[in-house]
Amino acid sequence: MGGNASKVTAQDKAILDMKNQRDKLHQYQRRISVLTDKETEIARQMLAKGDKKRALLALRRKKYQESLLAKTDAQLAQLEKLTTDVEFALIQKDVLFGLQQGTKVLQEIHAEMGGIEHVEKLMGETADAIAYQQEVSDMLGGRISNQDEEEVEEELLALEAEVAQELPSVPIAQPPVAEQRQEEEAQAERRKQPAMLAA
Amino acid sequence: MAATTTTTDNDNNSFVFPREYHFPAFFTRQTNLTTLHAQRTKWSDLILSYARYHRIFRLSLSEAADSDLFVNRKLDRRLQFDDIRDVVVFMHKDGRVEYVGGGTTGDVVLVYWRKPDEWAELIENYVDETGQKGSVLTIYELVEGDGTKGTDIHGMDQHVLIKALNVLVKRGKAQIFGQDDSLGVKFF
Questions:
Q1: Phi and psi for A170 in degrees, rounded to 5?
Q2: Could you say which of A26, A78, B44, B175 has the lowest number of CB atoms within 10 Å?
Q3: B177 vs A16: CB contact, 8 Å cut-off?
């Protein structure tokens, strides 16, 4: 994303300058570390010789150098933060460029579509075509319904005929029911007799 | 920087010398041409593995002549300076050595126990693995920075590093820029 041609930009040179400053501070810190170690060693040697004053002097120098080290630490942190911020800003720039590209592409697509007016016109035409189709369907539906009506009437007649044929079968069913009732009455009388005998 | 200061071999450093180092004839120029070629090849291999072990990028021949590389004190044998120079010429033809300042002669040489092409691939992989493509890095940062600690790139000779970076430049993978004493490189 973004025109990353293989060449060095002004921002790259600025970043290089900051990183070089960082490197110089880094080297300075290393030099001071060597000095502080050296002063500690001197102090140890002086104490071994019993020369307390010089040992104290060496430790004072060490203390001073350590304070310089602390200052360069702060400066180094500042430089690194600045470098990081610049690099992040470059990333943000790329993101912004990406958004611009995306927007531009989207606008081109909209232009190809003809814009909102064109879409509205198209939607209107579509609606008209749908309405026209509906009328056509209605007309065809009207004609077909005549045929359907005839079929429905024929079906009705067929059903009526079936119902008439079923009627004669009804009387045949009555006698079995009557016979069942007579049997039930006989059983009831038989139950009464045992009761009288028991009494 | 040069070879390590003279010490008895295998005492202070644990570099294991090859078998031929303990043969007296190895330190004497051979008259038979086939044997001479084999001898030079073995010396070349020894110099490369010694330099690799001690991470020697830059070798002063006059200083090295007195180091345990060319002097076997147990055998009381040493490679004569003229013979050392001949071996270096042999290595130069093979691309394993380059004279500082260019040219075909000199006392100080860069020893390519890893060739600039090989270094270039190493550096490219490092940049890929650390996600630093498109970034600007200083030469100092690559050689001395905390980022490269634990990699072979840390502690490289700057001269060799720049040669390796120039390989990447030719491939269109990097661009070197900045002042002479504070160079930077951008990777693509």
A1: -65, -50
A2: A78
A3: yes
- Range A136-160 average pLDDT: 74
Pairing of strands B108-111, B174-179: unpaired
Is residue A193 in some structural domain? no
Give pLDDT, residue A118.
78
φ/ψ region of B106 (left if φ > 0, alpha if ψ in -120 to 50, else beta) reads left
Question: Is A30 within 8 Å of A37 (Cβ atoms)?
Answer: no
Cβ(B158)–Cβ(B144) below 8 Å = no
DSSP B19: G
- Asked whether residue A16 falls in the same domain as residue A26, the answer is yes
Residues A84-141: tens digit of each pLDDT: 888 889 888 889 889 888 998 988 888 877 887 778 788 898 898 989 887 788 877 7
Q: Which of A12, A28, A87 to mutate to test the interface with B (most CBs of B within 10 A)?
A: A12
ipTM for the assembly = 0.71
Domain boundary among B109, B132, B161: B109
Same domain, B28 and B104: yes
The C-alpha atoms of residue A6 and residue B187 are separated, in whole angstroms, by 9
Same domain, B103 and B27: yes
pLDDT of residue A160: 79
Question: Domain check: are A95 and A107 in the same one?
Answer: yes
Residue type for position B83:
D
> pLDDT band for position A199 (50/70/90)?
very low
On whether the CB atoms of residues B71 and B5 are closer than 8 A, the answer is no
Higher pLDDT, A147 or A46: A46
Please give the residue range of the domain that contains residue A135: 113-162
Number of structural domains in chain B: 2
Contact B177 A12 (CB under 8 A): yes
Residue B9 counted as domain residue = no
Residues B144, A6: C-beta atoms closer than 8 Å:
no
Question: Which is higher by pLDDT, A174 or B109?
Answer: B109
The reply to whether A16 touches chain B by the CB within 8 Å rule is: yes
CB-CB neighbors (< 8 A) of B131 in chain A? none
Is the Cβ of B155 closer than 8 Å to some Cβ of chain A? no
Ranges of residues in chain B whose predicted pLDDT is under 50 = 1-11
Q: Which residues in chain A are closer than 8 Å to B172, comparing Cβ atoms?
A: 6
Select the residue of B134, B172, B182 nearest A20 (Cβ to Cβ). Answer: B182
Q: What is the CATH number of the domain that holds B25?
A: 1.10.10.570
